[in-house]
Amino acid sequence: MKPFRDEYTVTYVMRLREKAHECEFEATCDERILEHCIQTITNQDLIKRAISKGWNLDKFVEEAGQMEDTCLQMKDMKGDHRDIVCRAEKRNSESYDSHQQSSSVNYENRQNVKKTIEEAYKTDSNTDTSDYEEDEDYFEQTIKHLKKIRRVKTIQGTRDIEKTVTVRIDDVDVKVEPDSGADVNVMDENQFEKFQRKTYGKPVLEKSKIKLSTLQNSLPIKGEFTRLSLRNKTCGTETRFIVVKGKINSPPLISKSTLIELGMIQIRTDGSFVKTNQLRIPDSEPPFNSEELAIDRDLNTTKSHQDAK
């Protein structure tokens, strides 16, 4: 998902939040959204500041809003008065949502926003009354959209089962979160201490040479414990866990390689996990021919040229 043209960052983040609740990383939702924003937005100055200063998502949205407000004020100085008023109205509604999520917008709030708009428009003698009606309609649509997002958050908060699975680590049943993007199995030090208390074995942390990091920061490693049997109802595997200091705000994470060994993840080249749709390769077109793939052919040609040299 990418931002629309001229879309405000706070609106883009709200769209990402709504989409993220359908995924399996609700516990690390803000961190994943921030990483996606950094990868997709075009404001390079904002990205550099976010990474260098280690902003969280709220700080990122706040700073982005200030930069966008500055740009709009510059437009206003050049005569584009309407943009800054609409932006002010939109910021009011979004600020209200972030600080008053548990309350609904009442008639008095709408009147206050309308009054603010009317006062701003008094400086423009050419403003038509239809502009006020258009702005009020826009505000009502924004409020309905924010209410919809709050309803989604409430419902999605009860769906923990979908993002976790239960496996047996040695002799302890543990709820873990499959993470196909992880290279190693990870748990935090608090989770490790609970595991130590419940298991009959005596797992001991060893020094680890593994280095872990998010997009913005490196994760402090406390150690690792190895020779663990990780099992489900079908099979098991011997693996290790990396233990990080602090808290990871999620269940223990199971890496892609471990998921494959446990038979819990599979890649089907024909995409048969989902139903067919109209965008598939039709039967009337020729099937794949591994000997005539364009990329492979280009690579072979390049290699031949290099060998000739």
Report on the structure:
There is one protein chain. This protein has helices at 9-20, 29-40, 44-53, 57-77, 81-99, 107-121, 129-156, 189-198, 256-261, 294-308, and strands at 165-169, 172-178, 186-188, 212-213, 218-219, 221-231, 236-244, 253-254. It is an alpha/beta fold and 309 residues long. It has two domains: 9-156, no CATH class; 164-261, Beta Barrel (Cathepsin D, subunit A, domain 1). Strands 3-7-6-1-2-8 form a six-stranded mixed sheet. A two-stranded antiparallel sheet has the order 4-5. Strand 4 and strand 5 (218-219) form a beta hairpin. It is flat, with a radius of gyration of 26 Å. The two termini are 44 Å apart. Residues 89-111, 283-309 are annotated as: Disordered. Residues 294-309 have a biased composition (Basic and acidic residues).
Major sheet: 6 strands, mixed
- Strands of the biggest beta sheet: in what spatial order? 3-7-6-1-2-8
Instruction: Compute the CA-based radius of gyration.
Output: 26 Å
Structural class: alpha/beta
State the distance separating the first and last CA atoms.
44 Å
Uncertain ranges: 80-85, 102-110, 123-129, 147-161
**H/E topology pattern:** HHHHHHHEEEHEEEEEHH
Region (Disordered): 89-111, 283-309
Biased composition (Basic and acidic residues): 294-309
Summary tags:
309 residues, alpha/beta, Cathepsin D, subunit A, domain 1, six-stranded mixed sheet, 10 helices, 48% helix
Topology:
Blueprint: H1 9-20, H2 29-40, H3 44-53, H4 57-77, H5 81-99, H6 107-121, H7 129-156, E1 165-169, E2 172-178, E3 186-188, H8 189-198, E4 212-213, E5 218-219, E6 221-231, E7 236-244, E8 253-254, H9 256-261, H10 294-308
Parallel strand pairs: 2-8, 3-7
Antiparallel strand pairs: 1-2, 1-6, 4-5, 6-7
Helix pairs in contact: 1-2, 4-5, 5-6, 5-7, 6-7
